[in-house]
Amino acid sequence: MKRTLLLLSLAAVFSGTRAQQAPADLIIRSVSVIDVERGRTAADQAVVVKDGRIIAVTPSRKLRHSAPVVVDGTGKFLMPGLWDNHMHFGGGDTLAHENRNLLPLMLAYGITGVRDCAADISHFVLPWRDSVAKGLIDGPHIFTSGPKLEGYKSVWKGDIEIGTKEELAKALDSLQGLRVDFVKITDNTLKPGLYLESIRETRKRGLVISGHVPYVIPMKDIVDAGISSIEHITYLLKAGSSEEVSISNGVANGTLKGRDLSEKINSTYDKASARKMFRYMASKGVAVTPTLSLGHILSYWDEHDRRHDDYLRYIGKGLQSTYAGRVNNVMQHDAAAIAQRKANYERSSAVLADLVAANVTILAGTDAGYLNSYCYPGLALHEELALMVKYGMTPQQALKASVINGPKFLQQQGYGAVAPGMHADLLLLDDNPLDDIHNTQKIRGLVSGGNGGTAHNSMNCWPKPQGERPRGFDLPILGKNHSRFPFGERLFS
C-alpha cells in the first residue's frame, strides 16, 4: 500500500489488530468531521483510508469496512491537515540539515503542506519535495518556487538576477527545467518595466506568480500584468491610498521616500479607495498572503522577548543565528520608535478586514524560516491563524485560507476536505477550531497520506511523547535528537 503516516498519542486513541489482507489501512470512527468549506461539522462519522487516500466517509453505524488500525475518535474533531502557504527554507548549504529537520517538526504541529517562497538552497528543497511525494522521507507536501527572480546585485542570496528580456526568458526556461511549482518575483533591484514583463511572460507560460510589489508601480498595473498573489499585507496600504498614483510618481522621481513615503501612505489610506481596488483585485483572482506573524513578533518584541522560548530547542543553532539581524534592529528602538512600530503594525493588519469585505482570496502563510526572526516553522501557523481571526476573519475563513485556498492557488487537486478521493492528510483535534481558532493547537494525532508513495507492508505509527509542552500550546514535545523523527520509537515496523 502507499505510505500512510499516523502520529498518535500514547494515551491510546487506537485499537485493533493486524489483518493479513484488510480492505483498508486505517479507520477513524465515532469522530466529528469538520467541513471547512461550509463551516460545519458532522458528528459520529467513520473515515476510511487506503493507500494514502480517503475511500469512504460514512456514519459510524453504517460502517462496513475493516482495517488493521481503528482509531476511536469519540469526542474528537477531524479536519484536513494544515497548510503554511508562505515559508522559507534557506541559509546556505551548511544549514541544509537544520532545514531538513524542520520537515518532521512541521508534521508534529499538524502541517501537511507548505509553500516554500524562495531562498538559497533550492538544490536541496527540490529533491526533498520529490522524496516526500514518493514516500521516501517524512514531511509535509512541499511546493516551491525554486530561486526567485530579481535584478542585478540583489540583496538576497540565491536569486536569479536578470536585467534584460533575454535573461528573463533564460531564467524562466531554467525554472521550468527545475519543475518549480510557482514563480516568485521580488522588487529589490529589478527594474519596474522588467518586473511587469516578468509577470506577463511568466503568465504566458501558464505558471502561477507570487511576489512583492514595487512602490513605483500602481497596483492596478501589477494586477493587469497578471500577478497571482501578493505576499505581505503591508503592500496593500499603498494600494488602498486615495493618492496611490501620485505616490508612485513621487517614488519614481525620487521626491518621496523613507519616512515621508510611509507617512504619506498611512495618512492617505482610504476605505472607499481601498475597497474599490481590492474588489478589482478579487475580480482578477489576485490572492493576498498577509503574513501577520513576523510583523507581530518584531512590533511587540518589548512585550515578548523570544530569545528564551521553549520552542528554540527544536530550531538548529545555525538557523537561530540568522534571526539576529532584525531583532538587533528593533532592540535599538526607543519608546517613541516602539510606539510607532506598533501603530504601523496595527494599521497594516487592519487592512485584512477590508480585503475580506472585498472578497479577496486570502492565503494563510507565516514567513517562517531562516532570517525571519523567531517566526518558527510549525508553531507560527497556529499563531498566524489566531492573528487572522483577531484582525477580521472568522475561524472558518482562517481555516479555509490555510487548507482550501492554499491548494487551490497552486491548482492542486485532492486537498482541503475530509471526503472520498481526497489525500489522507488528516488532523485530529480535541476541540472544534470552528468554535475557537486556538483549538488548532489541541492536536491529538495526524495522518499524512502522502502524494503517491512507495509500497509498505505495514503502517508506521509514532506515539505522542510525554514531557513539558512549549509555552501556551498543548502540542507534542519533541526529542532533543533532531536527527531522528521527533515522535521517538515506532510502535509498529
UniProtKB/TrEMBL annotation:
Domain named Amidohydrolase-related: residues: 77-450
Identify one Pfam family in the record.
Answer: Amidohydro_1
Q: Looking at the record's lineage, which domain of life comes first?
A: Bacteria
What InterPro entries would the database entry show?
Amidohydro-rel, Metal-dep_hydrolase_composite, Metal_Hydrolase, Metallo-dep_Hydrolase
UniProt name for this protein? Amidohydrolase family protein
Q: Which organism is it from?
A: Chitinophaga pollutisoli
